[in-house]
Design a protein that fits this description.
By secondary structure, the protein is of the alpha+beta class. It has 3 helices and 5 strands, in the order αβαβαβββ. It has one domain. The structure holds zinc ion.
Length: 142
């Protein structure tokens, strides 16, 4: 049911390219949560509660961006897919609960550079929102 896009560049994509790609997943995830709630289902509030394993990408080699439904099927996710799950739900839930249907666009995924052995471009994905920046991989099993 999902749709995958493989991007195989000769160089490493920059932070802004990746953040834009992740934003597509966050937007799709917000819609996905909305559809699940409309269907009377209650997807896990976060991937820690869903007992999904946090599996970091191989630094600088590949970046997988996986939508919320597929992450729950895969039972593992790397940080950007975890952050996209969390940001998508946060974006959608207030408008679901108050009946306005509005998305809270203050929630988004940001990439922060990591120090990593001889890899120049390696990021960790965090969720930025009105209450600050959070790392939704914290507490997930490895
Ligand atoms: Zn939870």
């Amino acid at each position: 049911m999902g749709y995958g896009v493989a991007f195989r560049a000769d160089n490493r994509p920059n932070k802004y390219f990746l953040e834009a790609a992740i934003e597509e997943v966050v937007a799709a995830n917000a819609d996905w949560f909305w559809r699940e709630w409309q269907a009377g289902r209650e997807p896990p509030c976060c991937l820690e509660c869903a007992d999904i394993r946090y599996q970091p990408d191989r630094p600088g080699v590949v970046t997988e961006l996986v939508g919320a439904g597929q992450v729950l099927e895969d039972e593992y996710a790397s940080c950007q897919s975890v952050a996209a799950y969390y940001a998508g739900r946060e974006r959608a839930i207030a408008g679901w609960n108050d009946g306005s249907g509005k998305y809270d666009m203050r929630y988004r995924v940001v990439l922060v550079p990591q120090r990593h052995t001889n890899v120049s471009s390696y990021f960790h994905a965090l969720v930025e929102g009105p209450n600050g920046t959070q790392d939704p991989t914290k507490g997930m099993r490895r």
